[in-house]
Design brief:
alpha+beta, six-stranded mixed beta sheet, 6 helices, 19 strands, globular
Length: 315
C-alpha cells in the first residue's frame, strides 16, 4: 500500500508547452542529466547517440532536493492549490533552438527528499510504456516536426510553477545527446504506440462506474460515457496525517466525454479521491482537479462506446 502525507499534491502531471524564454541562469553547483538505454546500472550504461526504436531513458541528478532549490530562490509551491499543477520543467532544445517544455509535478514526499529523477522518452517495453506513456507520446510528437538525419538534443531541468512561468529561471541540471531521426521508422513507431484509449493500470468496472458518476456535471454540454484508470502509480495512493492516520486516498483516471453540440468525443484526465471514514471505510468517490496534459485529445466515439449517442438516454 502506498502511503503519503496529507499535503501531497498531484503525481507526475505532464504537458508539452512551447514558451518564450528571455534568459536562463545556470546553477552554481549544477546537477546533470544523463541518458541511457536501460534503467538498470544507469551510471555504467550511459550513451550519447540514439535513434528511433531505441530505449531512451534519462536520469536527472539534482544539486539538492527540489525543496532545497525552491528555498534557495525564495520560491513557494503550494500543493493544496488546485491551480498549481507543475513544479518543475524539462526544457527541450533541438539543434540549439528551444522547441518545447515538459511540465511535471513532483509529489510532496519526493519534493522534500529526492535528488535523482528518472523519465522514459521512448520504449518498446510494455511496463515502461504504461508508466511513462504521456511523456513518451509527447516526445514522439515533438520529433515529428523535424527533418530526417542527426539532431543534437539538449534537456534542461528548471524549477517552475504558474506564478513564475514567465520569469528568468535557474537551470539546475542539463544534458545533451544525439538523435538520428528516420521518418519511416518514426511512423512505424507511432503506429505501435498510438491507441484511441490509453492503457489502464487497474481493471475495475466498479471504480470506473463511480468515476463516470463523479464526472457527470463537470463540463457544460459534455457527458461522461466511459472511464479508464490511468494512474502511473498503478493503484490507489493513500495519504496520512502526522500521526500516521489515513485521511484519504486518490488516483488518476481518464474519462471519455461526449460533447453534444460538436457531436464529438474527447478524453480528459483528472484526479479523484475518497475521504477515509474510519475502520477501513471510505466515503463517496469525488472529482478533485484536472490533470492537464496527461491524456487530453479527441477520439472516435465508436471506439469508446457502442451506444447511439444521438439518443440522450444512452449517456
Amino acid at each position: 500500500m502506498k502511503t503519503k502525507k496529507n499535503n501531497s499534491g498531484l503525481l507526475k502531471i505532464i504537458t508539452l508547452v512551447v514558451i518564450m524564454v528571455t534568459s536562463a541562469m545556470t546553477y552554481a553547483n549544477g546537477g546533470k542529466i544523463t541518458f541511457s538505454d536501460s534503467f538498470g546500472e544507469f551510471s555504467k550504461n550511459t550513451q550519447k547517440t540514439f535513434e528511433v526504436g531505441d530505449e531512451l531513458y534519462m536520469q536527472t541528478t539534482l544539486p539538492g532536493t527540489l525543496e532545497d532549490i525552491y528555498n534557495k530562490h525564495n520560491y513557494a509551491y503550494d500543493f493544496s492549490d488546485a491551480t498549481y499543477t507543475y513544479n518543475y520543467g524539462l526544457r527541450v532544445y533541438v539543434d540549439g533552438k528551444l522547441d518545447g517544455q515538459f511540465l511535471v509535478e513532483m509529489p510532496k514526499n519526493d519534493f522534500d527528499s529526492k535528488t535523482v529523477v528518472r523519465h522514459a522518452l521512448a520504449s518498446e517495453k510494455e511496463d515502461v510504456t504504461q508508466q511513462h506513456f504521456p511523456l513518451i507520446m509527447q516526445w514522439m510528437e515533438l520529433l515529428k516536426q523535424y527533418e530526417e538525419g542527426m539532431h543534437t538534443i539538449k534537456l534542461e531541468f528548471v524549477p517552475i510553477y504558474p506564478d513564475i512561468a514567465q520569469k528568468e529561471l535557474p537551470v539546475v541540471a542539463s544534458g545533451t545527446f544525439k538523435f538520428k531521426l528516420d521518418k519511416n521508422e518514426l511512423m512505424a513507431y507511432e503506429d505501435r504506440k498510438t491507441s484511441d484509449l490509453p492503457p489502464s493500470t487497474i481493471e475495475s468496472q466498479q471504480i470506473e462506474d463511480r468515476i463516470v458518476d463523479a464526472s457527470s456535471e463537470l463540463y457544460t454540454g459534455a457527458f461522461p460515457i466511459d472511464a479508464v484508470i490511468t494512474d502511473m502509480e498503478g493503484d490507489w495512493t493513500y495519504f496520512t496525517d502526522d500521526n500516521g492516520n489515513i485521511t484519504h486516498r486518490n488516483l488518476i483516471a481518464t474519462v471519455a466525454y461526449y460533447w453534444t453540440a460538436e457531436d464529438k468525443c474527447t478524453l480528459k484526465s483528472a484526479r479523484y479521491y475518497e475521504k477515509h471514514q474510519g475502520h477501513g471505510a471510505f466515503g463517496p468517490l469525488l472529482f478533485y482537479k484536472e490533470v492537464e496534459g496527461y491524456y487530453d485529445y479527441e477520439v472516435p466515439c465508436d471506439e469508446v462506446t457502442t451506444a447511439d449517442l444521438s439518443k440522450k438516454e444512452n449517456y
